[in-house]
Amino acid sequence: MKKLHITSLFLMFGLCLMSFHLSAQNPPVVKNAKTGAVIKLGPMPVAVFPVKNPNGTPIASKTFNFPGGAVRNISLYKTPLSKPFALRKGAVVNIQDQDPTSTCVNLPINAESGNFEMANFAPTDFIFPGSVVDGMSIPSGEYRQIAAPRNPMAMAISLTNGGVAPVSAVVNTPNVASVREAINQLTAQANFSQGVEVGETRIETVYSSEDVALVMDVHARSLMGSIGSSVSYTTDANKLTLVKIIRQRYYSVDVVPPAISQDFFADPNTAISPNWTYISSVKYGRIGILVMTFESKSQQIEASLETKLRGLIGSVSGSIDSEIANKFKSINVQTFQFGGPPMNIAGGSMASLAAVQEIFQRFDNWTKKPVNNPQPIAYSLRFVQYENGGPAIASLQSTLNYNARRCVEFRPKLEVTLKEIKCIRADDGDGGSGEDIYCMLTSKAFTGDGVQRVNALFNQPEVVLNLKDCATRSINTGGSYLVPNATRLYDIPSDDRYFRVTIGGDIDEDDNCGVTNTGSDDEYNDEGGVRTQRTIEYKDIGTNLTTVVFDHKSGNSHIQQVWTLRKVYQ
């Protein structure tokens, strides 16, 4: 009597790289309608603040259409003092028609935003405390000033870092020249002492010019803006663009509102439009922007590398660890500034990590330099016409719809199942009944290069199949045995160009029945040994089941193994 000994194993080998992930920022989580897979998107633009303001009154709106298909609507709202905004971060994402079969997909983004305070990235004449602007012109970015003669206006200065300054000043005839002169006189006095504020720092990954505009919080001006259109970004899988913005406020100038709205103007009979607004507060300081596009030697940028690059651009020392050094190919650097002394930083492509570190150090040194050439970097608006005893808050709310490249946080897994063992023919050739073959199945999986097997992924206990009567399970000729618990899931390396699956089995025969163990049951002999296996390229495996059948023939015996493989999203 002969025993048919099948050792079934599947080997997985190739480049063993980390799975692709994105930096953890609690991005929105949605479910794909086609596959049922849960997808985590990230990172979303951090300058997105959906507004819940049921009591606000819309004053004016403007719609912008951009060549790339983006559509933005900006509206000016009036909010009574007793009903402040409730702000929350987030974004509305609809991916019902997307199929996440690749690492990155293009997704329709709908972002709503609302701000008390508008960022300013370009000095303009209308940005001065007390400037009266027609609210109807704000959504379009025109900011038409109202030229009616003004009454004297009081201003108050507030400092950072415990500085000392005159509390207030009065401007007799408020206009851009007189207000700036008054501020210059206040800051030039001997008792004006101010240090450099640490400031607000924001670091984000960007994939499009719309992302740049949102990250930079550009609301009142055009979507692309002078800065938004200047920042270089990339959608290549082996490149990553990070933007670092630091805002440093030196001081703020706030307008002291008069007792009644008519006191804004020299003529008490001035007909005040309910749409008129005034700039109630201006922050002066500087803004520095550092843009870094990292190019990796690898085909893609993995999660761990992105995390370290974000730490790199956020650090002061610009320390380079081994993973960055090993994956480094080049870094392109751009710098922008508004206010402050000249940076004197030459950007461009850096092929040396030492050059990159020097750029980071110079940027950090610039943020520590003394006060010099402060510019209006942000401002707030209120309405001239009073409500509930004071000037109502003016805010800009906007919606932005565009297609953005986003990457899923997970990769598909490979599902491998040894489904069943079929007995086509069992005959050891000794003239018996033909159902006297014994089949021992041992399933194993390994990672490695196919030669040296390492890192066993699982080791399933032996399944003894008796084709006659020597063991607990039997398969009659023409029957089959469904293998229990024989499905395994495997993570796929992020670089799957060389990833492949090898499955199959070994057949060896001996004359030991296996019921009484003599120590030779599990020993393969050299007589009639047969190995049957097949290598399958990962790229040829889809989301539908791929069935692979192996025929094991030895003498007059014929046993089949049935395997299934597929990609699954969880």
TrEMBL record:
Keyword match Cell cycle? no
InterPro entries under this entry?
Thiol_cytolysin, Thiol_cytolysin_ab_sf, Thiol_cytolysin_sf
Which residues constitute the signal peptide according to the record? 1-24
Keywords assigned: Signal
Q: Which GO terms describe its molecular function?
A: cholesterol binding
- What Pfam families would the database entry show? Thiol_cytolysin
In its UniProt entry, what is this protein called? Answer: Thiol-activated cytolysin
Organism whose genome encodes this protein: Haliscomenobacter hydrossis (strain ATCC 27775 / DSM 1100 / LMG 10767 / O)
